[in-house]
Amino acid sequence: MIRHTINLKERSYPICITTNFDELGKTVLSLRTGKKILVVTDENVDRFHSEECIKRLEESGFEVFKHVLAPGEEYKTLDAVYEIYKKLVEYKLDRNSSLVALGGGVVGDISGFAAATYMRGIHFIQIPTTMLSQADSSVGGKTGVDFDGHKNAIGAFYQPRLVFMNINTIKTLPKREVSAGLAEVVKHGLIMDAEYCEYLSDNAGKIFAFDENVLQYLAKRNVSIKGQVVEQDEKENDLRAVLNLGHTIGHAVETAMDFKLLHGECVSIGIVGAFRLSHRMEVLPESIVEQVKALLVKLELPVSLPGMDVDKVFQQIFYDKKVKDNKLKFVLPRRIGEVFQYTVEDTELVKKVLADIAK
């Protein structure tokens, strides 16, 4: 088992990276929490992993209950949180009990928000089962739900007590979802580690072949890069915003397309948009844009969205949480491995970039 600690003083927590669930019960037991646990999962993950996870927890003496969500971003709502609250009350979980999120980013976001707000906060444990959640969303404490068509409009920063990653869970995913998760993996390299991008390009085949050594290295490098940023800026006051590379355009595309595209696919398109914007601002040459596009294509990610409604996406960008005083703030690349934040006042420039993506 590989262990990595996110250092946030009294909110510090371990990330355990392994190839099975054998040590799950013992690891949770080491937290010295109460004995009641509610496992929240979704219908897809439930079929593959719930039984073993619950068995391991019960072997360590926990009393375990389960709540199953409908899968998909469209169910990431306050109604879903309400149903979790009902189960927490029904099973009499108290402030020393734990809520476990077993699943991808949607399950983690919903469950984390429920854990943050039930009894003003109970123990929260992440067991991410997708490439996307293992690479990104399970680490850093962002929780929340969509509201009235706006992504992550309601939420809280709430750190887990533990993140337990079994990298082999991604074998149960459709290939499209593995690729979508790799968008966040690439993002980490693009913001802080050019050599990591080269590693991803060289090992794309091994990733899709589920090579355990490669997948464990990816998980360790991802949490190391993201952890480094979160440790310096837990609540996204400044530095942590760099983790949003590709997300300003990506979230707008995701919402404008009514969530028909996967989150990672939209982030990939958004990354291309950010690199195109830097190129149009004469920060970097077109050859770098093409290099990044080639990497994304190698990982079977989209780099454009032909026919996209440019005006609709442009209007949606203004709902981004980084918008201040109606001005668009972007995370932009200076080169592969380095980014900067920039307020773009030339809205026509942004529209030109969106038109590039729509070709």
UniProtKB/TrEMBL annotation:
Ranges where the 3-dehydroquinate synthase C-terminal domain occurs: 181-323
GO molecular function, one term: metal ion binding
Positions that bind Zn(2+): E184, H247, H263
Domain of life of the organism encoding this protein: Bacteria
Presence of keyword Amino-acid biosynthesis: yes
InterPro entries in the record: Dehydroquinate_synthase (IPR050071), DHQ_synth_AroB (IPR016037), DHQ_synth_fam (IPR030963), DHQS/DOIS_N (IPR030960), DHQS_C (IPR056179)
3-dehydroquinate synthase N-terminal domain: residues covered: 68-179
Cofactor note: Binds 1 divalent metal cation per subunit. Can use either Co(2+) or Zn(2+).
Catalyses which reaction(s): 7-phospho-2-dehydro-3-deoxy-D-arabino-heptonate = 3-dehydroquinate + phosphate
Cofactor dependency: Zn(2+); Co(2+); NAD(+)
SUPFAM superfamilies registered for this protein in UniProt: Dehydroquinate synthase-like
NCBIfam families associated with the record: aroB
Family designation: Belongs to the sugar phosphate cyclases superfamily. Dehydroquinate synthase family.
Protein name, as recorded: 3-dehydroquinate synthase
Gene name per UniProt: aroB
